[in-house]
Amino acid sequence: MERIAVLGLGIMGGGIAANLLKAGYPVAVWNRTASKAEPLIALGASAAATPRAAADGADVIIACVGDDLASRAVWLGDGATAGALAGAKPGAVLIETSTLTPDWVRELAALAADKGCDLLDAPMFGSREAAATGQISLAVGGDQAVFERVKPVLESFTRKLMYLGKTGTGATYKLINNMMAAIHAACAAEGLALAEAAGLDIAAVAPLIMEGPAGSRMVQMKLPRMVERRYDETDFSLKWMEKDVVYALRLAEQVGVALTVAPAARALYRRALEKGFSDEDMAVVAELFR
Ligand code: NA7
């Protein structure tokens, strides 16, 4: 069986690694905060001291970290840590499941090619529960033959795989999806604020919103949290949602699309970050109106 390395064991990476172990793959894990590796070591993972050590001898190297900066750190290393690319053997397949800019993904693919490796950008859909139960989906960009080769590995922690085309297409689609999701949640926060201020019975109105035409999947997921003001046990943190909108705005500028709603949503998420809600569930954006 292929040897796998998983770099980044947060909400999503931890679930991915656990499902690979359940499927019987030998898995080496690394996380910046080493304690997060402990539950996975208990499941049979081997702990690596650096991303480079985790990548050493691996056939498939999966990263699941926060943003471009974190991805650069795990692949290329930073002052303190040796990066995975230096440990990757020729022929290894690198899989980036983090939500990143298409620019960085393409740069990383070129660096991987210099080492005789292939990169797939494969950002994830689904949150904590889906990651834990192996039910996430991936939107995949990169060489199709490489994708086909690693499909069995990907299938061990996913429900659905969507191949979109050349390198960067997965990353691009993910930013568009998350920009829209951010707008939906911001919209739910505003609707709720208006309903509360206008004196409606929220217990009666919230279910109607969720089953009506404005009740997108995102609104269905976040409105109950907003009503109950329940933002712990984060499914998707505010800081990553804000980051995704920022990346989407950057993309829009690059391709010459003048967005209007997304910048307003971004301003809301930014304000919520400034209030210190960074690690709480993104539904916390509703607190800005209270
Ligand atoms: P989490 O649960 O916040 O986990 C983020 C992970 O990224 C976690 O392992 C972090 O390590 C790691 N991280 C963050 N910054 C760095 C740097 N600079 N260097 C190395 N590692 C880092 O996020 P999710 O699992 O919900 O989301 C992961 C991705 O999917 C993200 O792109 C989302 O937008 C979607 P730590 O444990 O803090 O030491």
Account of the protein in words:
With 290 residues, the protein is α/β, with parallel strands linked by helices. The protein has 2 domains: 163 residues, Rossmann fold (3-Layer(aba) Sandwich), CATH 3.40.50.720; 118 residues, N-(1-d-carboxylethyl)-l-norvaline Dehydrogenase, domain 2. Helices cover 51% and strands 14% of the residues. It is globular. The mean pLDDT is 98.
Ends distance: 53 Å
DSSP helix fraction: 40-55%
What is the CATH level 1 assignment of the largest domain? Alpha Beta
Shape by Cα distribution: globular
Instruction: Report the CATH topology name of the largest domain.
Output: Rossmann fold
Low-confidence stretches: none
Tell me the strand order in the biggest sheet. Answer: 3-2-1-4-7-8
Which H/E pattern describes the elements? EHEHEHEHEEHEHEEHEHEHHHHH
Note the total helix count: 13
Summary keywords:
290 residues, alpha/beta, Rossmann fold, N-(1-d-carboxylethyl)-l-norvaline Dehydrogenase, domain 2, 2 domains, 6-stranded parallel sheet, 3-stranded mixed sheet, 11 strands, 51% helix, 14% strand, binds ligand NA7
What is the compact description of this entry?
Helix content is 51%, strand content 14%.
